[in-house]
Amino acid sequence: ATPTALMVGTGRGAQLGILIKGPEVLESTRRVDTVVLDKTGTVTTGRMTLQEVYAAESTDEKQLLRLAGALEHASEHPVARAVAAGAEERVGPLPPVEHFENVPGQGVRGRVEGHEVTVGRFADLAARLPQEVARARHEAESEGRTAVVVGWDGVPRGVVTVADAVKETSAEAVRELRALGLRPMLLTGDNRTVAETVARAVGIDPQDVIAEVLPQDKVDVVRRLQAEGRSVAMVGDGVNDAAALATADLGLAMGTGTDAAIEAGDLTLVRGDLRVVADAIRLSRRTLATIK
Ligand code: ADP
Ligand code: MG
Question: Where is this chain's protein located in or outside the cell (predicted)?
C-alpha cells in the first residue's frame, strides 16, 4: 500500500467528517461485512424526555416523581437525565440522596427521604407490578418508549416512561449499508420490544436485534460474530460501548458521544450522523482500489 494514497484517503475522510486514527485503519474497513449499531445515542438521538407516569393505586404520583427524580439526579445515564429533569419540572426541587449506587445496564439505588428507592429494569421488582401498571408498561414499550420501574422499601410503586427519537438520518444510513452489501444489526441494553420498534423504524430485521445485553456483555456479542467468521464494524457512543469498539475489526465512535468511546474507536464520526459509516466504507474501498 502506498502511504501517499492512504494519506489522501485520510484527508478526504476529514472532509467527510471522519477522523481516522491512522492510515492503516482504512485497510480493515474494506473487509467489514457486518455493522453492529448501538441503539441509544447512535441510532437514536439519545436526548430523552419524560413521558408518562403510572403510579400504583395506593401510591402518590408526586411522591413517586420526587423520589425517582431525586435518585436519577445523581446518575448521568440518558434515561436518568430525562427522569430527573422531567420530575423537577413537574414537582419542583428534588430532595438529596444518600448511599447512591449505580448498577450498570440495570438502574440506580439509594436512600431518599428515609426510603430505600430503586429506579430501573430490576426484574424482581418488575415481576411484582400491579397488573394495570404492568399492562401500561408493556404498551409504552411496544410503542418504542423505554419504561423503568420505580420502587421503594421493596415494593414496586409504579413505572415512568421516557421517549427518545430515532435520528432522521438513521433509516437512510441503514439503506446505504445494505446497498454496500453489509448486514446491519442493532445492539442494546434496552428492552427487546423497544429495540424491535426502533429496528422496524430504520429497516433492521427483527432477527438482527440483540437486546437486553448488559454493558459488560456487548463485547462478547462482537466476539461471537467474529467467531462465526464475520468481520465486524461496531458503531457506538457510550462508555458501555468502549470494549466492543476496541474489539471490533473496525470501531466507529460517535463524535457526539463519550470520551471513552472516542478513545476506543478507530474512526470518529464527527457529526454523529450514521450515514457517514457508509461514506467511510466507500472511501476505504476507493482508496485501496487506487493503490492496487
Ligand atoms: P443502551 O445499551 O441502550 O445504551 P444501557 O445498557 O445503558 O442502554 O441501559 C439499559 C437499560 O437499563 C436502560 O434501557 C434502562 O431500562 C436501564 N437503566 C440503566 N441505567 C438506568 C438508570 N440510571 N435509570 C433507569 N434505568 C436505567
Ligand atoms: Mg448508547
Answer: Cell membrane
Bridge partners of residue 102, in order along the sequence: 108
Domains of the chain: 3-45+166-291 (3.40.50.1000), 49-163 (3.40.1110.10)
Mutate to test the pocket of ligand 1, among 106, 117, 119, 209 (most ligand atoms within 8 A of CB): 106
Question: 399492562: which residue's cell?
Answer: 135
Q: Which residues contact 3 (CB under 8 A, 6 or more apart)?
A: 23
Distance between CA 220 and CA 231 in Å, rounded?
14
In the beta sheet, which residues pair with residue 50?
A: 162
User: What are the catalytic residues?
Assistant: 38
- Residue 233 CA to chain centroid, in angstroms? 16
pTM: 0.86
CA distances from 8 to 16, 91, 137, 273 (A): 13, 56, 52, 22
Interface pTM, i.e. ipTM: 0.94
